[in-house]
Amino acid sequence: DCEYVYLALSTAEQQPESIYFKEETLKMSLQVEKLEKNMAKLTIEVPAEELEAAIEKAYQKNKGKIQIPGFRKGKVPRKMIEQLYGKEFFYEDAANALIPEAYEKAVEECEDTIVSSPKVDVTQIEGGKPFIFTAEVALKPEVTLGKYKGVEVEKIDITVSDEEVDADLNQQRENNSRMVTVERAVADGDVAVIDFEGFVDDVAFEGGKGENYSLAIGSHSFIDNFEEQLIGKNAGEDVEVNVTFPEEYQAKELAGKPAVFKVSIKEVKEKQLPELDDEFASEVSDFETLAEYKEDIRKKLSEKKEQDAKNAKEDAVIEAIIAEAQMEIPDAMIETQQRQMVDDFAQRLQMQGMNLDMYCQYTGQTPASMVESIKPQALKRIQSRLVLEAVAAAEKIEASEEDFDKEIEKMAASYQMETDKVREIMGEAGKKQIMEDLAVSKAADFVRENAKEKKAKAKKAKSEE
């Protein structure tokens, strides 16, 4: 449940699995140059023989695609290809094969924690010479904590009022309402079943026609004052509805233009709510009486308010700790977090049967504008994680093996897998990440429990303002 996660770079997720099952490890050397604002430039050098092996592999991989007169397909010698197309012909494939593994090894050897995706630049690639490239990365910032124990935050009222219970009950009535056909004119709140066709300059336009459409009057789901013009009309009537499309309408050919919709009202339906009595309570809950049901609603609302207050208190405490702390967060770290958040959101959309492009079309956003819009949230996540890690270090807060076992059990139950299988898939790197996350979660509990609550200042009466 921890929300204080930032992306501590893991290129393992981006690279082919074959990298991690090689019998021999790629040779490389690393130089680290510290730059301003917690940035660093890694200069990674791969021996000439490793480059030669990568070029040969690129040749073997691609020779079947190259045809030269006088040679059978796939039998053209490498030297012949390099003479015709230049020695650089296989360099790109060779570099793409070497960089992921060499960079991954450099990350392991680097004494600092890398917290951004790398910006890679090849500085030397030539047969017979070492392959050299640089990777500009962000390093995990140091955090100097200010006050983090005894932080004062406003106390949140968790009292459940009778009005809130009634509102929940009424929502349940709405959820269990039914639409009934009535023999009267359309009124606000009704559903009118209609056929319609729209015209601009007496010409029907694409997308302006519908049959047996259930239109909720008052929902404002149709443009302009379309729905209001149906009020007072009866089933069986034909109505001409006059509207004007908005200037910013998505269909540019209709934007700002007046239109006439020819509407046939086929049916009028009204919403009927169930009576609020013991029978209703027994139908929508496990209770026999309305009094018992209301008491259960109050209990659940109270539990929710307690959890919401706990979360709000935690957020307020962490925000106060961030304000007192000192840290310099590199832009590359924030950019990596933004991209990760968008990727996570895209994955959630896919689970709902939608992709990011579709979402952007519906909302009028672009992937770039979406990335920019979540920058404040990305920064907050990073700051929260960093200060909580610092608190965990200062207070020597660590996750135990028992904590880890409980987390594995939760994951196994969630994914309907055996715990041993979850451990196997996770590996040591996954365990390390979970232990760190659990320690951060414990640090969040620590600062929240050590915070001081103060009553919110009473608002002045309007007459005193």
Quick rundown:
The chain has about 475 residues and is an alpha+beta fold. The chain is about 45% helix and about 20% strand.
Q: Could you please describe the fold and organization of this structure?
A:
By secondary structure, the chain is α+β, with helices and mostly antiparallel strands. Helices cover 43% and strands 18% of the residues. It contains 12 helices and 11 strands. The strands form 3 sheets. Strands 6, 7, 8, 9 and 10 form a 5-stranded antiparallel beta sheet that branches. A 4-stranded antiparallel beta sheet has the order 1-2-4-3. The protein has a two-stranded parallel ribbon with strand order 5-11. A hairpin with a 2-residue loop joins strand 7 (191-200) and strand 8 (203-216). Helix 1 packs across helix 3 (91-109) and helix 7 (331-351) packs across helix 9. The model is unreliable at 1-23 and 461-465 (pLDDT under 50).
How does the major sheet shape up? 5 strands, antiparallel
Morphology: extended
Radius of gyration: 32 Å
Report, as a whole number of angstroms, the end-to-end distance.
Answer: 43 Å
What is the percentage of strand-forming residues?
15-25%
Mean pLDDT across all residues, rounded?
89
The helix-and-strand class reads alpha+beta
Topology:
Blueprint: E1 29-34, E2 39-46, H1 48-62, H2 78-85, H3 91-109, E3 119-124, E4 131-138, E5 152-154, H4 162-175, E6 178-181, E7 191-200, E8 203-216, E9 238-244, E10 258-272, H5 278-284, H6 290-324, H7 331-351, H8 356-363, H9 367-373, H10 375-394, H11 401-415, H12 419-449, E11 452-454
Parallel strand pairs: 5-11
Antiparallel strand pairs: 1-2, 2-4, 3-4, 6-10, 7-8, 7-10, 9-10
